[in-house]
Write a structure and sequence with these properties.
Length: about 300
């Protein structure tokens, strides 16, 4: 049993015993790396580039895919489509043009060449891209998919975009500047006292027996776990106060970087069972959680840690 859990809340880190009263989540301080000048970055153009990639490459293929447009990667549940590939190529070209010298770590590029991940450890700013998060939903004609983009530098996520084109949702977060959904500020809030917690967990189709065993500790009174859909949209649900937490057992940066910043900037919290903040570069002890507030994150982590 871990004696203390470190909760990363609203951009800050604190070490707190499990039994202690958790501090309230507070807005993240403005902490852009002093060596990275983003004053010339056209933020509106970034949003426009994401919308354009979806309009050009994703939405024309939604519910229009042919069998040859869909390929299995690691197995029948791990799919990629022509829309994923073309949207990532589109975003790679447009985003690097907007920020000269930047690199892109995209899901499909990493699948083709794992060394692309090395950019997360470098000094150049990095765009982290998941062109279609929720490919399985996309393939089955379900609108619950999104495009995820995060801008990071030296391991710190500075901005993120979560765009669900079929749902008409664009959520944007900037470190220290809050989070907005379609221009309206987001506040995750806290669960009502005594309420059953709605927790999205790693889908059983993507977990091994040990991960299932650990996640099963959430099947207890006061918690209602369910398999997640699109990870990006689950983070948005937390930031909107629609669900209370996640418990995820995989760490791909493109699935989590955008959503974690979105939750933090909406006043939420996150942490791993090892007592460390989640690192986008990888090497995290898993599972980890993101939640509407620090108390909820601590409760989820306490149950997950008890399985170790």
């Amino acid at each position: 049993m871990i004696e203390a859990l470190r909760i990363q809340e609203a951009g800050e880190t604190a070490i707190t015993p499990i039994a202690a009263t958790p501090p309230a989540a507070t807005p993240a301080p403005a902490q852009e790396s002093p060596s990275l000048d983003l004053s010339a970055l056209d933020w509106a153009a970034v949003e426009a580039a994401i919308r354009r990639a979806a309009a050009d490459e994703i939405m024309p293929r939604f519910r229009q895919l042919a069998a040859e447009d869909i390929v299995e990667k690691s197995g029948p549940h791990d799919l990629v489509t022509v829309a994923d590939r073309l949207a990532e190529e589109h975003l790679t070209a447009s985003l690097t043009a907007l920020l000269p010298g930047s690199r892109v770590v995209g899901e499909e590029a990493v699948h083709a060449d794992p060394s692309v991940l090395d950019a997360l450890h470098g000094d150049a700013p990095v765009w982290i891209v998941d062109p279609v998060d929720g490919t399985r939903q996309f393939v089955h004609g379900d609108p619950g998919f999104c495009t995820l983009v995060a801008l990071a530098h030296r391991g710190e996520v500075l901005a993120s975009w979560t765009y669900a084109p079929a749902l008409g949702l664009m959520a944007i977060a900037r470190r220290g500047a809050g989070a907005r959904l379609n221009g309206v500020p987001l506040q995750a809030g806290s669960p009502s006292s005594g309420a059953v917690l709605d927790v999205a967990t790693s889908h059983y189709d993507f977990t091994d027996d040990e991960q299932k065993r650990v996640l099963a500790t959430l099947e207890t009174g006061g918690i209602a776990p369910r398999p997640c859909g699109s990870a990006g949209l689950e983070y948005l649900h937390i930031a909107r106060g629609e669900i209370d937490a996640t418990a995820f057992s995989w760490e791909n940066a493109w699935d989590h970087a955008a959503g974690l910043l979105l939750v933090h900037e909406a006043g939420g919290a996150s942490g791993t069972v090892a007592g460390q903040p989640f690192r986008i570069e990888g090497g995290n002890a898993l599972p980890f959680t993101a939640a509407r507030d620090a108390e909820t994150a601590r409760r989820i982590l306490g149950l997950l840690a008890a399985a170790n």
